[in-house]
Write a structure and sequence with these properties.
Oligomer: heterodimer
Strand content of chain B: 15-25%
Number of helices of chain A: 9
Distance between the termini of chain A: 50 Å
Largest sheet of chain B: 10 strands, mixed
Structural class of chain A: alpha/beta
Radius of gyration of chain B: 25 Å
């Protein structure tokens, strides 16, 4: 079911949501979190779709906030979608004029009470997410450095403004790589002296991984520019020879260890819904990300 | 040596198994096609399989590697839960091998041994092997003996671990694990036999007993509900609980499983492992920790406190489905199914009243029931509470008020229902039962790993906590054996029309105690 409300108020939207719940029977009971998406008209469609796909794993109330600045007077338009292709509910808010400076006043009454809040900026994000009026509402704030024009610079700004509860999808993208590396080091290996991460230029995930390796292993880690796509390889230099994971086609990776046959494994690039689902799995601060980010800020490029 | 890249705070990084080979016996079976092969793909797709992971099929088919890969491919396309990705499949299929042969043939197992040794060299699987016996229990001895004879069970399986000085990465260093599915025997004696057989070749920590009805997710949900909350524990005892009903109802008949099912029956098939495990999880005390040992210790205690009814004629019931209408379809009776003797006395419905002799549960009956061709498919644990000692209403006001109940729905639609009385709107005072519902999410299950995925992952990682150990299996048989013996001498099971909720004897069993079954 989908309805549109023009020139409306938060309480009218709330009333509609309650009506929907009653008509469709207990829809709020399954909602495990509130997901606020701060987005633009251009990104809105993809972001909401990714959120509703992630919602299959984490039924949520999605509140998309689109600030339509401009010179018109303050106005709120809302679009409510309930019970279509995903569990949970979606509310798209278009906020015009001066009201767009006070979007939090519209969002707050629409949150399902006593339920965790996550804010996600699929595109441009504030440098200090935790200080943003909408970021303040959330216990977990998800940015995406890769969506910025200058990802690495963005990472630097994020590092400066880091607060526990911040995470970034560039870090989420690194999880499969980090898992493989961690598994590789579960087995006995010789001492590691340095690390190299190969990636396209301006790849925030590569920077974070290099920083993570440097912080965890206490070794120098450097970046190497390659043709991509994305991250193309990680190599750990050991006294016996390199332990390396290489992926040149964005799909399949090869794990090599000194004195052992190469092993192959699928390592595909994941879509946004997948990343978001991982992000929503845990709602406590990701301290390991915080440490990698701090390491990047001190020793990164 | 600790791995510096692992950090308990880093919850994103999953445990990935070491490079290994999974050898699958019985690849032509339904289970392999519908569950195991798709689960392997799903694990690969989620990035949870190790690089170099290889899969070897063994069956009596004249297949080449690519024929098996083709079969696996079709199974994955049809039954996998995650989207199909060609790259993932390509990667996986590179490690697929097939060895044709019979379980009695020495040379077939020698070929199998060569195949996995070759995989160690080609794909670096380092001698790590898991053997999944998806085959009828009658074939176990032959296969286990062959694994031993051909060296496939290997030194890695020796109680003392690899021989000293074994070169790193050599086959002698790797682990060997074996997976067996329920049924774990058909009575105490055969369960012991099976266990002795496995124990003679594999150390106990390497034997994984799998009850696919009881996914790990379910067990953990149940543990979380009981022990992560303050709300339930204070009332989880004889002061508040009137009785407990544990049900597993199936709407299907025996289908193509006549050969397996006849002579086994509902109690051995479902009560012995599944319902008694659920009972143990419901009745047990809080484990001191959630590690494997502590959890098993509590389940073991609960099971050893279980008492069978003194009068088995009064405390048990069994039935056999007769022809009838189910869900709008005419269906055959059990005795008319293909492959079933016309005079079979195998039960397709079994109900039993058990006691748990502990301070917590003294006098609280646990009713277990299971059956085929019942109206619906569902598994649940219903904790039924006592009535309020005093109701400050007029007698007629609360006439429709039943007993409070906490129902843990295991499947389908996993979740929890709390049933309590509420006032009916209106000027009259009237109290009626209502349900408060929690579902683990309407489509939650879509992305949460399927039971078999969890299970295969645990086997490959070597993480056995929730699998029943042989002591538990033996205890379950000790509970069931006297009941089976009694039934064997008690003539024929009662008939019940397909699509109804069981034989009259089961209702009489409850009626004698002044109770009724929850409606299916």
């Amino acid at each position: 079911m989908r309805i549109e409300l023009t020139d409306t108020t938060a309480s009218a939207v709330r009333t509609e949501l309650t009506k929907f719940s009653q008509r469709l029977g207990g829809l709020t009971t399954g909602v495990v979190l509130n997901l606020i998406i701060v987005t633009s008209e251009a990104d809105q469609h993809d972001a909401v779709r990714a959120a509703s796909q992630a919602g299959r794993e984490h039924p949520c109330r999605v509140i998309a906030v689109i600030a339509r600045n401009g010179r018109s007077g303050s106005r709120l338009d809302a679009e409510i979608v309930v019970g279509e292709d995903a569990p949970g509910q979606t509310v798209v808010l278009r906020i015009y004029g001066e009201l767009s400076q006070h979007a939090d006043s519209v969002v707050t009454p629409l949150l399902v009470s006593d339920t965790p809040v996550v804010t996600w900026w699929p595109g441009a994000a504030p440098s200090v997410a935790a200080a943003d009026p909408i970021g303040v509402l959330a216990q977990r704030r998800v940015t995406d450095a890769a969506a910025s024009d200058q990802p690495v610079q963005m990472l630097t700004r994020l590092a400066a403004g880091y607060q526990p509860g911040d995470t970034d999808l560039a870090w989420t993208r690194a999880t499969p790589w980090r898992s493989l590396l961690a598994a590789a080091l579960d087995r006995p290996h010789s001492a590691i002296s340095s690390a190299t991460v190969g990636a396209e230029q301006e790849n925030a995930s590569a920077d974070l991984m290099a920083a993570w390796l440097a912080a965890r292993l206490g070794i120098p880690a450097q970046l190497e520019n390659t043709a991509g796509p994305g991250v193309t390889g990680i190599s750990l230099a050991t006294t016996a020879g390199p332990i390396a994971i290489n992926r040149f086609d964005g799909r399949n990776a090869t794990l090599s260890r000194p004195g052992e046959p190469d092993r192959h494994v699928a390592l595909h690039r994941r879509d946004t819904a997948d990343l978001l689902a991982e992000e929503l799995r845990r709602l406590d601060p990701d301290e390991v990300y915080g440490e990698a980010l701090a390491e990047f800020a001190t020793h990164g490029r | 040596m600790t791995n510096p890249l692992r950090d308990p705070r880093d919850r994103r990084i999953p445990r990935i198994a070491e490079p290994s080979v999974l050898v699958l016996f019985g690849v032509t079976g339904d289970l392999a096609r519908k569950k195991l092969l798709p689960a392997i793909y799903d694990l690969a797709n989620r990035g949870l399989l190790p690089p170099g992971f290889s899969l070897v099929g063994f069956a009596r088919r004249d297949w080449k590697d690519q024929d098996f890969a083709q079969v696996a491919h079709e199974a994955v396309r049809e039954h996998a839960r995650t989207p199909f990705r060609e790259a993932v499949w390509q990667q996986l299929s590179e490690g697929v091998r097939f060895v044709p042969g019979e379980f009695g043939q020495d040379e077939a197992f020698d070929r199998l041994a060569q195949t996995v040794t070759l995989l160690d060299a080609e794909r670096g699987t380092a001698g790590n092997r898991a053997y999944y016996l998806s085959i009828p229990p009658g074939k176990f001895p032959a296969v286990v003996r062959q694994l031993e004879r051909s060296g496939l069970a290997g030194d890695g399986a020796r109680p003392g671990g690899p021989p000293p000085g074994a070169p790193r990465g050599s086959a002698a260093e790797g682990w060997r694990r074996v997976v067996v599915e329920k049924p774990f025997g058909h009575d105490l004696a055969s369960a012991r036999q099976l266990n002795d057989l496995l124990a003679s070749v594999f150390p106990s920590g390497s034997v994984f007993r799998i009850d696919h009805y009881l996914g790990k997710e379910t067990v953990q949900n149940l543990l979380a509900l009981r022990f992560a909350n303050t709300l339930f524990e204070p009332i989880w005892n004889r002061r508040y609980v009137d009785h407990v009903q544990i049900t597993m109802a199936e709407d299907i008949g025996i289908g193509g499983r006549a050969g397996y099912y006849d002579g086994i029956g509902a109690a051995r098939d479902v009560i012995q492992n599944h319902l008694l495990q659920l009972l143990a999880l419901t009745a047990m005390e809080e484990p001191v920790s959630f590690d494997a040992e502590a959890l098993r210790a509590e389940k073991f205690k609960a099971l050893s406190a279980v008492q069978v009814p003194g009068d088995l004629a009064e405390g048990t019931a069994r039935g056999q489905y007769a022809a009838g209408w189910q869900g709008g379809m005419p269906v055959r009776g059990y005795l008319e199914e293909n492959g079933i003797a016309r005079d079979s006395v195998t039960e397709t419905y079994a109900a039993v009243r058990l006691g748990v002799d502990t301070r917590r549960w003294a006098g609280v009956p646990f009713y277990l029931r299971t059956g085929k061709r019942l109206p619906v498919r569902m598994t649940e644990i219903a904790v039924i509470f006592q009535r309020a000692p005093h109701l400050p209403f007029n007698a007629t006001d609360a006439r429709e008020l039943g007993q409070n109940a906490l129902v843990i729905r295991v499947q389908p639609d996993e979740g929890v229902t709390l049933r309590f009385g509420s006032k009916v709107p209106g000027s009259a005072m009237e109290v009626r039962d209502v349900n408060m519902d929690f579902a683990y999410g309407e489509s939650f299950t879509e992305a949460s790993p399927e039971a078999y995925e969890r299970l295969l992952l645990d086997v490959l990682v070597g993480d056995p906590p929730l699998f029943p150990r042989h002591e538990e299996v033996e205890l379950s048989w000790k509970i069931l054996d006297p009941i089976e013996e009694f039934w064997a001498g008690a003539g024929r099971p009662e008939q019940y029309p397909a699509g109804t909720s069981g034989p009259p004897g089961a209702d009489a069993l409850m009626a004698r105690d002044g109770r009724t079954w929850r409606r299916l």
